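Sorry, explain these tokens?

***
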Amino acid sequence: MVKEFNHIGINVRDLQKTLAFYSKHFGAKIMRGLYIPASHTIAAYVQIGSQMVEFLSPLAPDGNTAYGIAHIAYIVDDIEEAARILIEKGHPFHVMPKRAGSGGGKIADFCLRRTHHIIAFLKDPNGANVELIERLESYSEEGWEPTTEVLDFDHASIFSNSLQAGIDFYINDMEMSMLQNYHFEERKFDMVYMNTGRNILELLHNETPHQGPLMGHIALRVTDTRAMAERLAGEGVELLTQPRVLATKNGYVCNIKDPDGIAVELIDRVSLFEV
């Protein structure tokens, strides 16, 4: 059913400012730009390492526009069949399969399927937005060259107040594989990493239920967290946290703030595939 963990969707205020920030500091490569007429939104797909990020910039925002990480997205073989299976498993959709950007109903004609990609939205058991996509292209490419500091996209992070329900959903229903599972008894929290191919999702669970937005942060694996944090701070980038030793004791981590206040985590441990 699931072909790939395709992208993380982020709503931004100033697309050009965001693209300049991620290109300058992280070597992000712009892969494609689209205009979505139904929502009057510009979408830019950028690649950082093995992961795609979709930046969405509403041209006519209103008071209901929420900026920040909005969703995670998977490409599936057959979106209508995937929706049927997930609904049968008790996962209702708040947007049923439809042509992307159309604002209309589902597309049944095969020729239209080949011309326009199809999307649908549901929520995971904890309420995070999940997009399903059926289209012929991934928009990503192999052979992304790391910058001198950024080695790869490490993971996207979601808070999961009901941890086992989240694990069951992403492994059993979204067909991800368990990669690493850490429990820290003294600090009363868990970090669970799952992957589809090279792309990784992190579920964070605290003993005290998380009350804020469920979409937590994006994380980049870098050569030297402390040196990069010092350089970025010198260039005016705000540090949300100072570099500190990871909970797993195998590197350093800090969080910086992007132009829309999104936390970007910098980590200098080895790849999760090599732990």
Notes: The first strand starts at residue 2 and ends at 11.
